[in-house]
Amino acid sequence: MVIAHGHALHLVQASQAPPSGALREAMYHSAEHGHVDITIDIRSLGVPWTLHTWLESLRTCFIQNRRPLIQGLLKDFSCIQEDEYTEELITHGLPLMFQILRSSKNEVISQQLSVIFTQCYGPFPIPKLTEIKRKQTSRLDPHFLNNKEMSDVTFLVEGKPFYAHKVLLFTASTRFKTLLQNRPAAENTCIEISHVKYNIFHLVMQYLYCGGTETLHIRNTEVMELLSAAKFFQLEALQRHCEIICSKNITTETCVDLYKHAKFLGASELTAFIEGYFLKNMVLLIELDGFKQLLYEPPPPESPASSPGICSDILLDLEKTLATRIHSIHLSTSKGSVV
């Protein structure tokens, strides 16, 4: 078989066409050697893409900055069979496609890549967050909630007193234990809480005195502040409960702000859930200015030292999340366990 090394592959008559196996081999070698025009000509004869030839062609077009061919190749990704989703897609495909997304900032290409990422993420639901069962070490009757009776510690929140009991708080979390330690051995300790609103602090205490989240009535306007307070007071089960509420109420309008807040707090489980939401809904989100800014605008340099995660690379995080998802669906030995 002779292949012309010019700008096109000429097969004059169908009767003279090489058998399909030879064409596949020719397509493979032309892609390997960067002869993308020949590869695409062979493809036009009906020879199916393999993931490898598609990726090599895309890489060549990206290096050569051939935008129309990149768009054509991205459109053709849907022709690749899912059983072709091999380790190469994770190790070579995703880094290349996210690099194209990062550098091109072309609306058509961004939209096409969003379609591919959503397709790779798959139709399965985003894995749900699950409640953490709290190990109750000590408990008081809810009657004692903010009750001065037998109270031996007073919190000053927004200038108002909140009465509590050390016996409960000392074992509630390391944070409360630290707050209570090294205080004067007075009959009643007074501790000022300056960064939490009174109604939010009341919900934190209600959670502790009632022994769980069952009795809590959390408004949508309160859930983010309660999440922050739960994180600060190191109450993991309450934090997870707030994260679950957030995950159930997420929308395309709220997801970006929610992600920034979760990232700022270092709430890794909620952050991972929202990254899944981004990938599953990326075709819609890529049209929204807030999401595009999140992807492309660098984070502010004056990021608090207490929250190192806020400066991480969102595109790199999405790539890792998608890689994990593809692996669990297509490459895992237990393909039923989607993550």
TrEMBL record:
SUPFAM superfamilies, per the entry: POZ domain
Domain BTB: start-end pairs: 151-217
Pfam family, one: BTB
Gene3D superfamilies: Potassium Channel Kv1.1, Chain A
Database matches in PANTHER family: ANKYRIN REPEAT AND BTB/POZ DOMAIN-CONTAINING (PTHR46071), ANKYRIN REPEAT AND BTB_POZ DOMAIN-CONTAINING PROTEIN 3-A-RELATED (PTHR46071:SF4)
Name this polypeptide is given: BTB domain-containing protein
